[in-house]
Amino acid sequence: MISNEQNNIAAYRLNKATETLAEAEFLFEHRYWNTTINKLYYSCFYAAGALLASIEVHPKTHSGTIQMFSLHFIKTGILDKDTNHLYNKLFDMRQKADYEDAIDLRRKRCRTSDRTYKKAAGGCKGYFREEVK
Question: Model-level pTM?
């Protein structure tokens, strides 16, 4: 059974994921492609952090979050492999958009990532409805 404190942390992070997704949608509509990818990644990062908090796992780094998410939610079959693939893809795209020169992600890549993310987010929210009370 999850503690009340852990439940609050998980709920906070899930709310942050939802807000960040709304920011990504706004940025997409205004054609800020690189920042859209940044926000999609962070929305995924916060959702993964929420899931991990629900099982009292608190990684200290982005890479640690990715590893622990995969270990506890993908390899166990709770969420599908496409969700993990998306998370890793967004991590790589965000790294390029934020740190490499002359990278300009375009609408098509952002729209594809956004649609895939929304599908994955539905799986995460479904887990919360069933498992985290």
Answer: 0.82
